[in-house]
């Protein structure tokens, strides 16, 4: 791949590929022209894109002429409407490959309205990815010699590796939940029930990425805990860096070097009135809805790429009911388990709507209290809590 962030690739980087005679291989391929409008061209393009996602990721560079895999010269693309062409490629990838994969497009402007275009495809953690365009229905991977269709044994291995990542994510959650339930935390946290929000990048368990989380040491105002009150402190830990509020803490956010974000809130599940504990449905949902985009901001700043598993867990909640209007529990039932560990939602983009991601989890918590779903959403799925 081009050793540069996709958003900062320039013509100079492209010319270096030519000067250094960097050959096509497992992570880079050159094309002199964009895919045409024929079904064959589209299938070839989708096979290239999916093969990168099924292997190690890579760059498709359009606007370079190659000879036996060696780049020889820039052949600028004459694209009349850049936005229209990007939408066409986006549509091809979105509709022609399953499941969704992560990629970015970089357009490099040249004189006379000419361009070079780079599509960077990230390694996929929900592999294998299948080309589904016009019933093509094939899987591709890559070697140094280029792409090839996967056989049955390779497909079985790909599915197994994908499941292994998911299993590791769930094992991590179980381990953390046990530790938190036993008050084994990086800083002392108030006793009682806790809201636990995890954002877990798939490549935290399938890759070797180590992120520069210590950048927040010099910008502590940016590393916000779950609920900060009037202020917070930041400290370095063995796993990364952590912000916390209060002593003992009412909340913290722990940013791991492998990109995992763990946020804990220790007050909202401990409200008690006349001996009855109840979840304040509006304020607790609002707090989580507000904090998830903050977690996504951390990941975006670090350069973490999706997919991300978003997970919500409530600990020490046996006997706790849901309160919709202050302390009126109405026809709610108390939760009958110590820990509510909700199924993960896989997020493909860090700009996805927090309400869409979290509503299924909120509904399940209301189900645990005997209700069909959260009362804080309208029929369109928008959050209306407090209105």
| Low-confidence runs | none
The number of domains: 2
Q: What is the SS-derived class?
A: alpha+beta
Query: How large a portion of the residues is in β-strands, by DSSP E?
Result: 25-35%
Largest sheet, strands/sense/barrel: 8 strands, antiparallel
Radius of gyration: 24 Å
Summarize model confidence as the mean pLDDT: 89
Helix percent reads 25-40%
Number of strands: 22
Question: SSE string, helix = H, strand = E?
Answer: HEHEEEEHEEEEEEHEHEEEEEEHEEEEH
Shape: elongated
How many helices? The count is: 7
End-to-end C-alpha gap: 50 Å
Descriptive overview:
By secondary structure, the chain is of the alpha+beta class. The protein has 2 domains: 6-150, Schlafen, AAA domain (Methyltransferase, Cobalt-precorrin-4 Transmethylase, Domain 2, 2-Layer Sandwich), CATH 3.30.950.30; 164-368, no CATH class. It contains 7 helices and 22 strands. It has helices spanning 11-19, 39-53, 82-96, 152-181, 203-206, 281-302, 354-368, and strands at residues 28-31, 58-62, 64-67, 70-74, 77-78, 97-98, 103-110, 114-121, 130-131, 138-143, 146-149, 194-201, 233-236, 240-246, 249-256, 261-265, 272-273, 276-280, 308-315, 321-323, 340-341, 345-347. The strands form 5 sheets. Strands 12, 13, 14, 15, 16, 19, 21 and 22 form an 8-stranded antiparallel beta sheet that branches. Helix 6 runs antiparallel to helix 7. The N and C termini lie far apart (50 Å).
